[in-house]
Amino acid sequence: MTKPIVRDPIYRRRRFDAEIIELCVRWYITYRLSYRDLVAMMAERIVVSHTTIHRWVIRYVPEFEKRWNRFSRPVNTSEHSPNTSPTSESQMFSCRCRHEGAPGPRFERP
How high is the pLDDT of residue 9? Predict the structure, then answer.
C-alpha cells in the first residue's frame, strides 16, 4: 500500500505543488519582480496567472514571516551603547574645558 504524501497543512486543497508556490512567493519578495514577470518565468514549468500568484503572496507571506522569524537572530542587541553625556565629575570638567572657546554645549559643575 502506498503512503499518502505528507503536505504542510497550509497547502491543503491547492492545485499547485508547495514548491511552486514557495518559489513564486520567494522570488516575488526577494527580487521585487512583478506578477507578470513571474508568470513569464514560470511558463517553462507551469501555466499560472498573475492573479493566482498575487493570491499566493497575500495568503502565504504572513505565514512565511511567522515561520522565518522563529529562526531569525536579533541584530545589535549588545548592552553597550555609546553614551555621549558625561557620567562622572571629571568628565564634566573635561567637557567644559574642551568646549570653553567653541560654541556648543557646555557642561558646568553642579
Answer: 74
